[in-house]
Amino acid sequence: MKKAAAFLCLILLMSSITSYGDSQGPYRNGFIEGYVKKVLEKEIQIEEYDGTIHQLPFDPNALLTIDGVPASLKDFKAGMEVYGELKGRRLYTLESYATENLGYIPPGGKIRTGIVKKIDRDQIVLQLPTGQKETYFASAATIAMKKGAQVPHSVLYEGDRVKLYFDEIDSSLISKMEIEGDSIVVKDLYRGKLAFAHDLENKMVLEEVEALRNGKWEAVKPSIAIPYAMDLPLYAGGQKISYKQLKNYQGRTVYMAVKDFFGSQRAEKMIVKGQYESTYADKIKDINWYTQGLELNNNKNLAFHEGTIVIKNGRLVDMYSIDAKADVFVVADGRGSNLLADVIYVYNEDINHSNIGRHVVYSGRLDVILQDQVTLKNFFVLDNNQWVSFGGQKDLYYDSDTSIFDMEAQKFVSPKEFYAKDYAVDENSDYAKNRNLKDWHGYIYTDGDQIRTILVQKNMDSLLNQRITNGVIDKVYDDPLVGWTLELRDGKDWSSSKKQWMEKNASLRINLEKAMIIKDERMISAHELKAGDRLYMVRNDFEGKIIIVK
To answer: How far is CA 302 from CA 143, 164, 278, 306, 345, in A?
Structure first.
């Protein structure tokens, strides 16, 4: 009798799991899409596009709409297509469109969510939750939002999760784009021994945990419990493995990419180490997409596959985002000529991370300043991570939104002050000679020819001594002796002679007191930086000059 009861409980448990699928599914991403399965008194059953069913309660302040009009729960009918956002395990918005009114949607009524797979100027290729890829288009009228604030389109990266809004049901032109915040960024890359995997609680325990720091593995914790989702990509030996097989790999070394999810770590991709580990920091010479292999400058040939953990711009991307000539750190598995890339970490950073951006950094003498225009003379442009000199003049334009910082006075000045003061003079005039006035110099960050930020100082720095560096902030603090300073981990310096990024084997200290710090096209203060921010910078050894938050 007891055996029969136990068997019955097991059948019921399996039935529940089969019917309701991955219980963590919608909570992982904070939204759910699909069809109404059943409407209950205070809850609703939603069937996701993949067939997984979830029964969800509502937040007390939940907003329900149909065709953009406020509605009640009883107005939702089985079969209606819905989109809902969640707080924890409760729906706080639920929206749908009446089937008898399919030809019309209110402005912003059509919504698509997914992962950005490719950016080509105004074209955005999105992978939907169904796995299907679709191409949409942005325009100058497209509003981009991130963390509740409007941002330029250039903040969008491959690998970002977005929510796109459209004004017409058949349109591919995006009216509004919401970009997910920092939860999409890879927080750490771990190596450790798989000690335990609990498939009911969706947690695994790693022991002897190490993180990739400054091009090498550093011990971080003796053990760590990390939650994961049932759709976590798992691979071993280049092959995808099921969760039922995971217990067979206990005691084996694994590599795991983790992200920050509401203050906690969550596994996003994992691969089991096979035989022997070797690491390479080099430039990719060539890629053979037919055989899925790449060759490094050192003539090492490595295979890669869908399970390879590829990190680019701090985000997980698929293998097709790897570029020939990219500078990479590779963790390989195998020996001899049979090497399989388990991890490919792309080092490359630039002012613009895709061709959607048109940002340029200038350094030069301020020759003429008009009410909305600056003319540079004998200027330099930061191109391919090095300063390139230009003779002649360059006209740039500023407006009321331009941030202007006077380094000598240590304060921001208004566009009106910038025009009125003697930042640019006729050095041959009696006025300038009698007052010993000279043209000032500036570091200028533009979007095309439009100045977004400018830092002005009396004397020009020696650009020959400057280095271009990228890395991740480990910590930032106000040093009592030298002022605001940051410690940079995973740092790389650009080598003009080798034409590649050269990794540093230790963290760097960078002082920020004389730096122009830029984030989302505006100048920010040093205290607004935070640990985990990725930076692209111009520095003179310890002294930061231009800091761009990526």
So the answer is: 42, 37, 11, 14, 14
Residue 223: closest CA among 245, 204, 236: 204
Question: Which superfamily does 184-272 belong to?
Answer: Copper binding periplasmic protein CusF (2.40.50.320)
Q: Is 392 exposed, middle or buried (0-12, 13-18, 19+ CB in 10 A)?
A: exposed
Q: What is the mean pLDDT of the chain?
A: 87
Q: Are strands 143-146 and 110-120 parallel, antiparallel or unpaired?
A: unpaired
- Strand bridging mode 186-198 / 253-261: antiparallel
Answer for the pair 267, 227: CB distance below 8 angstroms, yes or no.
yes
Report yes or no: 46 and 54 within 8 Å, Cβ to Cβ: yes
Q: Are 368 and 375 in contact (CB under 8 A)?
A: yes
CATH class of domain segment(s) 463-549: mainly beta
CA dihedral 25, 30, 34, 35 (to 10 degrees): 100
C-alpha separations of 380 from 173, 363, 374, 464 in Å: 38, 5, 15, 11
- Contacts from 298-303 at CB under 8 Å and sequence distance 24+? 300/332, 300/339, 301/337, 301/339, 302/330, 302/332, 302/339, 302/340, 302/341, 303/238, 303/339, 303/340, 303/341
Q: Average pLDDT, stretch 162-191?
A: 87
Tokens of 550: 């990526």
CB contact at 8 A, 216 and 202: no
- Whose CA is closest to 514, among 466, 450, 473, 474? 466
Q: Which residues pair with 35 in a beta bridge?
A: 47, 81
pLDDT digits (tens, 9 = 90+) for 79-94: 888 888 888 788 989 9
C-alpha distances (whole Å) from 112 to each of 336, 379, 387 are 46, 45, 42
Residues contacting 486, CB < 8 A, separation 6+? 473, 474, 475, 476, 477, 509, 510, 512, 526, 529, 544
Which CATH superfamily does the domain covering 110-180 fall into? Copper binding periplasmic protein CusF (2.40.50.320)
What pLDDT is attached to residue 20?
A: 41
Determine contact, residues 32/24, Cβ cutoff 8 Å: no
Q: Which CATH architecture has domain 277-346?
A: Beta Barrel (2.40)
Q: What superfamily does domain 19-101 belong to in CATH?
A: Nucleic acid-binding proteins (2.40.50.140)
- The helix/strand/coil state of 183 is helix
